[in-house]
């Protein structure tokens, strides 16, 4: 008796909307970061909307090249275009692994190059005077002002991202070899690093924790309208509102919510009044403040 031939696996070249939705779900489930899932979901949704509005062509290299031209026509930056092309490549990989797309078409999509970023963006960073004004405008006697001052001091002095600051715990700040530091801080992409804490930043945080009676858990909490702390923490948006409110007082417009920075190279950004208040600081870097500093790369950036 003759054996039946194995049925060959047919792979599609034109993906319909159910196939695209299934593949998009597989891509999002493979990502661990919620920020990556949000960005990839937006990019894939944009591609699906564009792909379904076009004639039903095969999902191949030519179609992705046309999508790249479409993104460039929108006037998007090179980094934004490349990020959305990366999401489309990931979509093609998952479709090929699921048996919905041929490996040859997926390999062709992989060869689509991104847009070259020519030149270097200058940026618009806060200088030392603006950082001092930001701290002065956060100063106050009520509990909320004490919290805002401590938050901005950590952002400027330690260069934390908003998500890192909102997740900061009392147990994370430890004294190692006579110096205070945030130990084993898990940041973006689950990278682990240790961030030194200048003494003036530690004084500001201690002033807040003593006033709010916080000894464990998250450092920064919400403050009610009655001036009492409540809850177990704050969100990233609360930090952005605090910085924006202080920036409005100093008439600094177009402040971007990218509170994400590398550690500050110099911590000498406190005004003389704040230095006198924190006279117990033993950090020698505060003795000779520079005339102009860039307060951390990508920190409190103005557009």
Explain how this protein is built.
It is a single chain. Helices cover 46% and strands 7% of the residues. With 303 residues, it is mainly alpha-helical. The chain folds into 2 domains: 17-110, DNA polymerase, domain 1 (Orthogonal Bundle), CATH 1.10.150.130; 128-286, Orthogonal Bundle (hpI Integrase, Chain A). A 3-stranded antiparallel sheet has the order 1-2-3, with no helix packed on it. Strands 4-5 form a two-stranded antiparallel sheet. The longest helix is centred in the first third of the chain and has 20 residues, at 34-53. The N and C termini lie far apart (76 Å).
Give the SSE layout:
Elements: H1 17-29, H2 34-53, H3 61-73, H4 78-97, H5 103-110, H6 128-138, H7 143-158, H8 162-166, E1 173-176, E2 179-186, E3 192-196, H9 199-212, E4 222-223, E5 229-230, H10 236-249, H11 272-277
Antiparallel strand pairs: 1-2, 2-3, 4-5
Helix pairs in contact: 1-2, 1-4, 2-4, 3-4, 4-5, 6-7, 6-10, 7-9
Keywords:
mainly alpha; DNA polymerase, domain 1; hpI Integrase, Chain A; 2 domains; 3-stranded antiparallel β-sheet; two-stranded antiparallel ribbon
CATH class of the largest domain: Mainly Alpha
CATH topology label of the largest domain: hpI Integrase, Chain A
Mean pLDDT figure: 78
Class from helix and strand fractions? mainly alpha
Principal-axes shape call: elongated
**Considering DSSP H and I runs of 4 or more, what fraction of the residues is helical?**
40-55%
For the biggest sheet, the summary is: 3 strands, antiparallel
Rounded to the nearest angstrom, the radius of gyration is 25 Å
Q: Which architecture of the largest domain per CATH?
A: Orthogonal Bundle
Question: How many distinct folded domains?
Answer: 2
Secondary-structure element series? HHHHHHHHEEEHEEHH
Distance between the termini: 76 Å
């Amino acid at each position: 008796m003759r054996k039946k031939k194995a049925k060959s696996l047919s792979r599609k070249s034109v993906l319909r909307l159910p196939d695209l939705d299934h593949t998009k779900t597989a891509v999002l489930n493979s990502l661990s970061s919620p920020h990556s899932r949000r960005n990839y979901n937006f990019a894939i949704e944009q591609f699906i909307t564009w792909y379904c509005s076009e004639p039903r062509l095969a999902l191949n290299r030519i179609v992705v090249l046309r999508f790249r031209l479409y993104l460039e026509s929108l006037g998007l930056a090179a980094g934004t275009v490349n990020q959305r092309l990366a999401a489309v490549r990931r979509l093609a990989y998952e479709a090929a692994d699921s048996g919905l797309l041929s490996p040859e078409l997926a390999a062709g999509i992989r060869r689509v190059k991104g847009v070259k970023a020519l030149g270097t963006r200058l940026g618009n960073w806060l200088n030392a005077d603006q950082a001092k004004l930001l701290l002065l405008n956060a100063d106050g006697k009520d509990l909320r002002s004490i919290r805002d001052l401590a938050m901005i001091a950590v952002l400027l002095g330690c260069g934390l991202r908003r998500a890192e600051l909102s997740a900061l715990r009392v147990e994370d700040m430890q004294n190692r070899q006579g110096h205070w530091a945030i130990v084993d801080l898990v940041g973006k992409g689950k990278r682990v690093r240790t961030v030194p804490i200048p003494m003036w930043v530690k004084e500001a945080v201690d002033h807040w924790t003593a006033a709010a009676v916080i000894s464990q858990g998250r450092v920064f909490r919400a403050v009610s309208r009655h001036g009492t702390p409540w809850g177990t923490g704050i969100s990233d948006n609360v930090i952005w509102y605090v910085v924006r409110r202080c920036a409005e007082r100093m008439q600094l417009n177009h402040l971007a919510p990218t509170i994400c920075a590398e550690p500050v190279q110099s911590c000498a950004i406190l005004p003389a009044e704040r230095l006198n208040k924190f006279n117990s600081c033993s950090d020698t870097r505060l003795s000779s403040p520079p005339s102009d500093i860039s307060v951390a790369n990508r920190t409190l950036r103005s557009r």
